[in-house]
């Protein structure tokens, strides 16, 4: 999957770095520790900027290329920070045949043409087209900061977004 | 004394529609009425009928409430739990020939009547976070029987005789997989559970993990005994937080009860299980890619042979089975292989779980005996197509599968029949499409997915799928030619025969099956430059019917790009060059004066 690199400045703190080092130490003797380390690192920072990948490479004694290779391979790992209002529209098959495409178009329009996979320059909104979140019974579905909205028609979009604007 | 049990669905579907809030409201309301000692709330796994969630069932009556809202809770407590009068308006109703019939109990619904629940037997019945409830349903009896009465050879023979085939997609006989791993020299071996359910629109495995996690743990221990392994891994999608939580709880409880860990049942058999989280890569559903991912690398597949049974995780003999496959194991051990083999068809034994989705009334989870026809599943269990629309196709097997047209509606669902008509069983996603679905657009949707998910290791898949997508884009944009359709077909065969792993080998299936059964739709896009289903935006234009337009200006005001002009009380005009085809004007027009064609 193609991944966009971020232009947002890294604002990691000393405390976060200490947390990360503790995570790496915890997995010191685990076989195949790269994935769990990256997963927990993303929980600490919210995303995986190159600065964080460098710390992981150095501490785990592997090349940065190897860390980046894994981080860029899996869609769950984000190299881009999420917006304050993180919108995710499910584009699983069940949602797609029920019109999720129109919903994402409507949101994009409402957010000034923000494309799926992007974060607005002010860091306020991010729009993501996700794989199936498993709520196919409620298709089509979107989530805003984890809150699930289901059985949508595209006219619902404005009302939902207004709550977060 | 407990006189009433309230079962509340805590699966992902119902949680998304608010069952958590209902649980909190119910707890508060019971407390306020002083009923905590008399009424017990049981949060269960998925009942299956996700379409009408959140679902609540009150026992001993078995009253089936659907689409319960937080605001209904007080009434349910006051009327039903206190006064014993079920709340009629919330009881699930079925519509037969426009007559509404209330169905009081879950088992009486047409949705459940034709089902046979083996893998889903405990989902929606027990609280998955309490091991005692699983044990009360004969849980861990099969493991006890295996460890104390059977040899590893007996276990493998039992699974072989049952005819069980892998439920993850390929349909390889499970017993044979186990036999190969057992035949390897003694030493470190692994048992792996594939819970990386990547097919978008499928949620069978998740529902089993959420509703009955111990069934999987127990079966993995049985597999460990059969092949001589003492360690297991469950590779589960990180996107399934509820399933992960329940697995963590289940593993901890099983360890506490001595059902995982050292010296299980005092027999000297050791087995323990670790969780590994997938990070959203479809290719990791392929067994060798999954193993590479557990080892901490990019999830790229490896050529086979050597098969994982010989050289798998960390280079050791490994068996990998899917969640649903494991969920059948304990029942085969307890009821015997003959019982299992008595269900299904000659070459496909037992039952299969499907996630029904798309344009179907009863979206949700169903388990049917193999050999049930597609028509029975869609029309009877699924309740048909909503809004009076017509069935067009059903898609099985996700991005690896194909579309089944109405002419094959009576195909029995089993491994071999589906392959024969150009689709596949897959892991069990079943998406129904009606006349408003464009088949070229659907093929493009799946290709877009596979291009994104192709790991890039082998050229036929990495480059070939991208070329397929480009041709489809061209057709959808109205620039395709008849030669493009031929080229598309030819390329499909190259990709199928030359790709390294299952992802590439099956990626062209959505294109091939739609070409086979819906070639006329492709031709309409190419020759007539029309999308018959009215989906492909580049082939549509919005126009105002002059006679019907009253000049109310509503459309011009709602148009986000200012493409509509006209004086008040005069017919308006849409500037097709400016129009972005968002459809806002059609929704706004009260006079049906705007059409897309």
Please give the CATH architecture of the largest domain in chain B: 3-Layer(aba) Sandwich
Given this structure, which CATH class of the largest domain in chain A is correct?
Alpha Beta
Distance between the termini of chain A: 31 Å
CA-CA gap between termini of chain B: 66 Å
Give the oligomeric state of the chains in this entry, treating copies of one chain as homo and distinct chains as hetero: heterodimer
In total, the number of strands of chain A is 4
Structural class of chain B: alpha/beta
Rounded to an integer, what's the Rg of chain B over CA atoms?
27 Å
Largest sheet of chain B: 5 strands, mixed
Could you give a quick summary of the protein structure above?
The complex is a heterodimer of chains A (165) and B (597). Chain A is α+β, with helices and mostly antiparallel strands and 165 residues long. Helix content of chain A is 42%, strand content 11%.
Task: Give an overview in words.
Chain A is an alpha+beta fold. Chain A has two domains: 14-73; 85-162, 3-Layer(aba) Sandwich (Glutaredoxin). Chain A is built from seven helices and four strands, in the order ααααβααβββα. Chain A has a four-stranded mixed sheet, covered by helices on one side. The longest helix of chain A has 13 residues, at 14-26. Chain A is elongated. The model of chain A has no long low-confidence stretch (mean pLDDT 90). Chain B is α/β, with parallel strands linked by helices. Chain B has five domains: 4-113, Glutaredoxin (3-Layer(aba) Sandwich), CATH 3.40.30.10; 131-341, 3-Layer(aba) Sandwich (Rossmann fold); 351-434, Roll (Ubiquitin-like (UB roll)); 439-528, Up-down Bundle (de novo design (two linked rop proteins)), CATH 1.20.1440.230; 541-596, Alpha-Beta Plaits, CATH 3.30.70.20. Chain B is 39% helix and 17% strand. Chain B is globular and about 90 Å long. Chains A and B meet through α2, α4, α5 and α6 of A and α1, β10, β12, β16 and α17 of B.
């Amino acid at each position: 999957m193609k991944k966009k690199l971020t232009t947002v400045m890294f604002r990691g703190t000393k405390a976060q770095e200490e947390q990360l080092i503790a995570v790496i130490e915890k997995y010191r003797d685990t076989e195949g520790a790269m994935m769990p380390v990256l997963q927990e690192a993303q929980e600490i920072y919210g995303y995986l900027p190159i600065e964080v990948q460098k710390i992981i490479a150095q501490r785990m004694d592997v090349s940065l290329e190897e860390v980046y290779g894994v981080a860029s391979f899996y869609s769950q790992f984000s190299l881009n920070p999420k917006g304050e209002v993180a919108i995710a529209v499910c584009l699983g098959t069940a949602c797609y045949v029920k019109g999720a495409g129109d919903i994402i178009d409507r949101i994009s329009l409402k957010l000034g043409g923000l494309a799926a996979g992007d974060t607005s320059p002010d860091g306020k909104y991010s729009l993501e087209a996700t794989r199936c979140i498993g709520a196919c019974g409620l298709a089509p579905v979107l989530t805003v900061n984890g809150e699930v909205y289901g059985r949508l028609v595209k006219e619902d979009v404005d009302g939902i977004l207004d709550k977060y604007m | 004394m407990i006189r009433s049990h309230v079962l509340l669905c805590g699966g992902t579907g119902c949680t998304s529609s608010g069952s958590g809030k209902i649980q909190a409201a119910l707890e508060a309301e019971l407390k306020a009425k002083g009923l905590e000692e008399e009424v017990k709330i049981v949060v269960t796994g998925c009942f299956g009928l996700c379409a009408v969630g959140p679902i609540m069932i009150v026992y001993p009556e078995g009253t089936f409430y659907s689409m319960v809202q937080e605001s209904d809770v007080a009434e349910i407590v006051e009327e039903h739990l206190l006064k014993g009068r079920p709340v009629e308006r919330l009881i699930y109703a079925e519509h037969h020939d426009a007559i509404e019939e209330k169905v009081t109990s879950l088992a009486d619904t047409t949705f459940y009547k034709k089902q046979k629940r083996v893998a889903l037997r405990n989902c929606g019945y027990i609280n998955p976070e309490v091991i005692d409830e699983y044990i009360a349903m004969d849980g861990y009896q099969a493991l006890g029987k295996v460890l104390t009465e059977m040899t590893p050879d007996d276990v493998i023979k039992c699974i072989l005789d049952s005819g069980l085939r892998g439920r993850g997609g390929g349909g390889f006989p499970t017993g044979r997989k186990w036999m190969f791993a057992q035949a390897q020299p003694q030493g470190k071996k692994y048992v792996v559970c594939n819970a990386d359910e990547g097919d978008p629109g499928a949620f069978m495995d998740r529902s089993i993990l959420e509703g009955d996690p111990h069934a999987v743990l127990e079966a993995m221990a049985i597999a460990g005994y059969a092949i001589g392994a003492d360690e297991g891994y469950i590779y589960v999608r990180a996107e399934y937080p509820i399933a992960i939580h329940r697995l963590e709880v289940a593993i901890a409880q099983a360890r506490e009860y001595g059902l995982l860990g050292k010296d299980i049942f005092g027999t000297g058999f050791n087995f323990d299980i670790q969780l590994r989280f997938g990070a959203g890569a479809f290719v990791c559903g392929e067994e060798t890619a999954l193993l590479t991912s557990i080892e901490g690398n990019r999830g790229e597949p490896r050529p086979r042979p050597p098969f994982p049974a010989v050289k798998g995780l960390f280079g050791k003999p490994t068996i990998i089975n899917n969640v649903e496959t494991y969920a059948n194991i304990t029942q085969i051990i307890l009821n015997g292989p003959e019982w299992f083999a008595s269900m299904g068809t000659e070459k496909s034994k037992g039952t299969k779980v499907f996630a029904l989705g798309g344009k179907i009334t009863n979206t949700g989870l169903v388990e049917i005996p193999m050999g049930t026809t597609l028509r029975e599943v869609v029309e009877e269990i699924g309740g048909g197509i909503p809004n009076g629309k017509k069935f067009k196709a059903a898609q099985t097997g996700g991005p690896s599968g194909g579309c089944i047209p109405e002419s094959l509606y009576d195909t029995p669902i089993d491994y071999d029949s589906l392959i024969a008509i150009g689709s596949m069983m897959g892991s069990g996603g079943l998406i129904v499409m009606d006349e408003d679905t464009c088949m070229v657009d659907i093929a493009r949707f799946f290709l877009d997915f596979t291009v994104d998910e192709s790991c890039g290791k082998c050229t036929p898949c990495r480059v070939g799928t991208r070329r397929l997508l480009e041709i489809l884009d061209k057709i959808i944009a109205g620039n395709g030619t008849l030669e493009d359709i031929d080229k598309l077909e030819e390329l499909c065969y190259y990709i199928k025969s030359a790709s390294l792993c299952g992802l590439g080998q099956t990626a062209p299936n959505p294109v091939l099956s739609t070409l086979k059964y819906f070639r006329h739709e492709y031709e309409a896009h190419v020759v007539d430059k029309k999308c018959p289903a009215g989906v492909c935006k580049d082939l549509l234009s919005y126009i105002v019917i002059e006679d019907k337009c009253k000049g109310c200006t509503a459309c011009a005001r709602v148009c986000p790009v200012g493409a509509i002009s006209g004086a008040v009380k005069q017919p308006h005009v849409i500037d097709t060059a400016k129009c972005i085809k968002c459809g806002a004007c059609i929704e706004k027009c009260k006079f049906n004066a705007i059409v897309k064609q």
